[in-house]
Amino acid sequence: MAKKIVRKKSNRTASKVKKETRNRYNLETLRPPRGSRKRKVRVGRGIGSKLGRTSGKGNKGQKSRRGYSRRRGFEGGQMPLHRRIPKRGFRSPFGTIFDVINVQDLNVFPAGETVTPDLLRAHGFVRTRQQVKILGDGELQNKLVVHAHAFSGSAKEKITKAGGSFEVLA
Predict the structure, then answer these.
(1) What is the pLDDT of residues 7-21, one digit of tens each?
(2) Residue-wise pLDDT tens digits, 68-106
(3) d(C-alpha 138, C-alpha 126), whole Å
(4) Could you point out which of 29, 39, 46, 90 has its C-alpha 20 to 30 Å from the C-alpha of 132?
(5) 98-168 sits in which CATH class?
(6) Residue 115 CB-density burial (10 A; 0-12 exposed, 13-18 middle, 19+ buried)
(7) Where are the domains of the chain?
(8) Which of 166, 162, 160 is nearest to 134 (CA)?
């Protein structure tokens, strides 16, 4: 039976590794991460490049021609999806869009305060510059003077029931 010879690792390699890690980042060793710098593919440069002659576009047809771009939603002559699905509803071009706030949200303000759309924006209840409508969800505990562009019927009732008043802005 042959005896197995085990070689002892020298300390020189260990010190070499330490040196490399110490001086790992400096101007000479800086380079971009692997895979981040990819060369662009140059098509039509001969058959040896695998993208020569037809440049990967195949043979003939509309898609191989210069300047081809199909329009959005085109499905090759098949009836496109946006025409296949049923249409429903109606959006009025004259309708107004409101930012809505419920009556219960107004309980944050102290009694006797005048609540305006600008005050609601300052407190973060309204985020856009759209008109404000007050809806009647919840109960109002404080007597407030509320200025808004529109009110629901139940909101008007609850504001007056709490002893406050409301004013419709133009």
Answers:
(1) 666 665 555 555 555
(2) 998 999 999 999 999 999 999 998 999 999 999 999 999
(3) 18
(4) 90
(5) alpha beta
(6) buried
(7) 98-168
(8) 166
